[in-house]
């Protein structure tokens, strides 16, 4: 299956002064350590990562204390938000902060880890979102070259794969007062561009992935077409170890599965992302197979082997709840989506100061719309409120603007109108506050509404009337713009 290894001399990479000058504008504040980047040639070869569904971390919880030690070695403190779904016996409107909080959103990060150049770069990033109400799940893959704002205290812009490295290398800096580490910084960055709460992270390195696949006895993957990569890097990253995998059903051990996930030279990053999601699904099916779930010894073997290679901020009790949810999800119904720069994609190339991917619409609006379309809020879906937006500001076109914004998050706006008299406040009138309690709460939080009244005699076809008053223009909106 593998062609004889080739050798070649390591090239040096010269960066032009023009690129350096442009890059200077984007780099973070000088008080923080420069990230650990390998030279650009080696980055190109070894950027790969692939995904690991959090169920791999969670399966063993079914067996409680028998593998508690191995599980605890993976768990770190959650420095950000937590999922209300996993921490509340009963979900009320007040327990959800906003659209998307009614799902369980997990950031999955792949890194090279120790003994790999640029091992802190998160070369593959994905969000797994689970809808426990409807037993649904979906993934969105984020390309490593996506240009994003780096959260405070750093500032500036860089590729999303560098954000993790910023956080890890500067987590103990005196200027990092909250000791925000790489995973937490990544959670904040993705949450901002998606306008979505990110509750947890799961991070895995190369060795962890290989050990998981091997502990499961390998996986069988349907390779859709021949994969021929004569430029696959060798272990030292100074030569080639050509890779060829024939189309068809292929049994893979950990090493081969990793190579299949990494390979990108003769295909695109987006093809690679699809292969990685394919492996993810195979791992889930293997992990949830009857033979594995009824074998505590095998489960303990897996977690003991990967304890140093996987980290998560999902706590033990949350894992127990999540495990009960994830086991009821039909794998064939899982939705997957890759952000890309295809003709129908939402990204485009930006070659100023390097190679980046940026949103086509020069803002995050269309991406956020797609995210909330795929990760639809189950409580909004259930209530299915018909909304009228009323412009009470006197500013022409505002109702249409609000309609566009709300549609992005999954609200159903059926009518826009202009108030007969201007209003200073944002207001809500609802036909039944109990039936539409989640919709009302989300709108109240989004627009800072304090005046809510009920009108059971509201006109047919309308459940909620949202009046936008003059105070709207003084309140902060949630739309993020790319600079």
TrEMBL record:
Keywords (A to Z) from UniProt: Membrane, Transmembrane, Transmembrane helix
One Pfam family it belongs to: LytR_C
Q: Which InterPro entries match?
A: LytR/CpsA/Psr_C, LytR/CpsA/Psr_CW_biosynth, LytR_CpsA_psr
Residue ranges constituting the LytR/CpsA/Psr regulator C-terminal domain according to the UniProt record: 385-472
**Transmembrane segment boundaries:** 48-69
Q: Which residues form the Cell envelope-related transcriptional attenuator domain?
A: 122-287
Sequence similarity? Belongs to the LytR/CpsA/Psr (LCP) family.
Listed name of the protein: Cell envelope-related transcriptional attenuator
Supply the source organism for this entry: Berkelbacteria bacterium GW2011_GWA2_35_9
